[in-house]
Amino acid sequence: MRIAIAEIAQETDSFSPLTAELKDFEAYGLYSGPEILERMPGVGPLGGFLEVAAAQPAPLTILPIIRAFGSAGGTITVATFEFLLAKLVEGLKQSLPVDAVFLSLHGAAASANEDDVEGALLQAARNVVGSKVPIVVALDHHANITQLMVDCANALIGHETQPHDPPATGRKAAKVLFRILRGEIQPVIRWRKIPMITPQDQFLTLEGPMKEWFDLARQMEQCKGVLDVSPYPMQPWLDVAEGGWAVIVHTDNDLELARVLTNEMAEKAWSLRDRFWVSARVAPAEAIRQAVAAKQGLVILSDTGDSVFGGAPGDSTCILRALLDQPLEGPAYVPMVDAEAVNAAIAAGVGAPIAIALGGKMDCVFSQPVQVTGKVAAISHGFTVDLHDRGICDLGRTALLQVGSIYIALLQHRSFAINHPVLYSHLGLEIADAKMVVVKTASNFQFFQRWRKDLIRVDSPGTTQSDLTAFQWKRVLRPIYPLDPSAKFSM
């Protein structure tokens, strides 16, 4: 049995000033051929697939094509998209004949010339392997589902949780694929588009309306004949023609059951639409006051407007300004992407005084540089770390500035580690010593869980801010709730 596998994953922030180029995929891991089998066990959906594949009794030939993970960022350049598409097509042609294809995609990627990157990739794959070869896809549940994606795949299976568990999604999708190959099931798909977008504030699946919606999906999966129920609350900064929430139901050759459950899931999301806009965000100055007043740390300050995990540049100075404006008790750790500042700190040397304008160099719309005076506390000329299910991370050159009780970790480029304790520990800081830490994400706080005493969502501006009305929407299909309060949803 021959199964081709590939991963091409990037989450696009249409409002980010960044563009996603090949170097951005290389920074997070661009592998091909056998290197994929060496590097990906335990990592992401491909790691989950490989785990399930290893347990199959029948002899398997796994044909790895490409692993291109670009995390979240700006719109993909035309040249980069065409390169990745060509690699997938070329690899599939060289792998023929195949019995199946397993793909790990994000679902919310857009290029400068293609709104629906995943749809284009799936169509290209289908054109190579033909209509009878099953194609099963593992997706981020913040994907934007399109008609083309549904038409070209046998199954589109999304994450079950936020924070995500990518290997688990890979295992779930792989089990469906192997059941198809054994002739145990005949999946059919029904799906509904839901004309709404919502901010990130209620995206966690552990509580609130998102928990209700995702719990309903898990309950439905207990019904006989139901293979998978995948809710897709699209990430809210994707301005594309088919943008909006969706739900997909896969059943074992029962279209009517799939239709009924799909409608019930869609109606549930629509009924909860106002609750998805409930927010506990506070203004930056008030957030700092609350963090200072906290009896004990660690207090996490979520920089919602500059979420690197959502595609923002990571150089917002909003919270840093608020920290500088107030007297602090206890150390505050702040990350900042600023290559110029890293170079200046390294040139000055450890222990040297430094006066420099930080941040606001990439996002010049929502942020401006802030002047700081302090000293260079530490320098790293390159650090590579294994972040387990997130893969190998190369931080590159970094530097630590101390400005009073504020410790600013400077990164030369965006990295998954920007929201990970290793960013500070590798520069000589102890997380347990901090009173507060800024994280440039609105939902992935789990890496600081062992120290966390409180969490404050900061209402910061930026390309991932929760005030979606602040953006100029140009392509999303209208009417859509809440940009158009009169938007309707009918079955």
The DSSP helix count reads 13
Total tally of structural domains: 2
Q: What is the global morphology?
A: globular
Low-confidence parts lasting 5 or more residues at pLDDT below 50? none
How much is the radius of gyration in Å?
Answer: 23 Å
| Structural class by helix and strand composition | alpha/beta
Q: How many individual β-strands?
A: 21
Separation of the first and last Cα atoms: 42 Å
- The averaged pLDDT comes out at 95
Please identify the oligomeric state: single chain
Strand order of the largest sheet: 14-15-18-19-13-20-12-21
Report the major sheet.
8 strands, mixed
Helical amount among residues, as a percent range?
25-40%
Into which percentage range does the β-strand content fall?
25-35%
Descriptive notes:
The protein folds into two domains: about 280 residues, no CATH class; about 180 residues, no CATH class. The mean pLDDT is about 95. Strands 14-15-18-19-13-20-12-21 form an eight-stranded mixed beta sheet. With about 500 residues, the protein is of the alpha/beta class. A hairpin with a 2-residue loop joins strand 18 and strand 19. The chain has 13 helices and 21 strands. Helix 3 crosses helix 7, helix 4 packs parallel to helix 5 and helix 8 packs antiparallel against helix 9. The radius of gyration is 23 Å and the shape is globular. Helices cover about 30% and strands about 25% of the residues.
